[in-house]
Amino acid sequence: MIETQDYKQVLGAFPSGVTVVTAIDDDGRLVGFTASAFSAVSMEPPLVLICPSLNSDSYPVIKRIGRFAIHILGQDQQAIAYRFAGKGRDKGEGIDWHRSELENALINGSAACLECHIWEDYPGGDHAILVGEVQKLWCGGSEVDPLLYCRGKMDQLPENLRALARAS
């Protein structure tokens, strides 16, 4: 039997970026969740995956409308990551965002963003495995450094990586 805390500790040893997945509900409000399960799937067609909890308030919205946006958060957006990691219907209040041409909720200031429509929705234990086809994307290049997550903590890129990224 795998202990939950051991499982979280092992997974936390894998450093990653921090993403927030958003959508717009029927009342025009921003909904979303912080997602550590995010990955590229295919280049042709361009597919990515996210894994929302089945208990998430936003998963039913995303499933119903069939589209979502994935934000790779910038180093100064830690408060947004924590806000969307919690439960509740008012996570979007006070967040600087706008509605895109594709009717997605886009958080301003992110390091990068992918707008997707649902390609496939698979069962995955207590989570869904949503594969999205990328319809539109945007990257801030070296203008906005991404927020990193490792061992339960969030932080900015180390200086040596920021210098290498800017030099290329």
TrEMBL record:
This is Flavin reductase family protein. Keywords: Oxidoreductase. Pfam families: Flavin_Reduct (PF01613). The lineage of its organism: Bacteria, Pseudomonadati, Pseudomonadota, Gammaproteobacteria, Pseudomonadales. Belongs to the non-flavoprotein flavin reductase family. Residues 11-156 form the Flavin reductase like domain. InterPro entries: Flavin_Rdtase-like_dom, NADH-dep_flavin_reductase, Split_barrel_FMN-bd. Transmembrane segments: none annotated. SUPFAM superfamilies: FMN-binding split barrel (SSF50475).
